[in-house]
Amino acid sequence: METVNIEERLVAKGLTLPAAPQPLGAYVPAVISGNLLYLSGMLPLSQGKLLRTGKAGLDCTVDELRQDAALIVLNALAVVKQAIGDFSRIVRCVKLTGYVASTADFYDQPQCINGASELLYELMGAAGQHCRSAVGVTALPLNSPIEIDFIFEIKRC
Q: Which superfamily is assigned to 6-18+27-154 in CATH?
């Protein structure tokens, strides 16, 4: 797998990492077990606020949720950096699970989560390719339309 400088790719795309979001409940944002880094579910927060609320198929479009999913990746990478200190310790993104608050007749959850998958690939190359699930749900915390959790493989110190 190629060595990738995530920070250089962020700059090249005109993106900056936000401050790592703080937990909204009684949990921690990241846990390391062996060579895996598990991230708690991440919401599309910008400066502590959701970009939008509601459900796909009613209040939010696929394009809006693709943007939200990309923002979630930036929040997730901020948590990764906080947890391990240096992106060079990332081996790969192993899996992500995306949850989309949806109406009963909305079936494009995978298209919404593509916003995250595509940005991970752009920032990490082959190391950003991952297994994935995209799940429609009735509701998410704070009436968020989307939530994603991640598993990264990391080099041990």
A: RutC-like (3.30.1330.40)
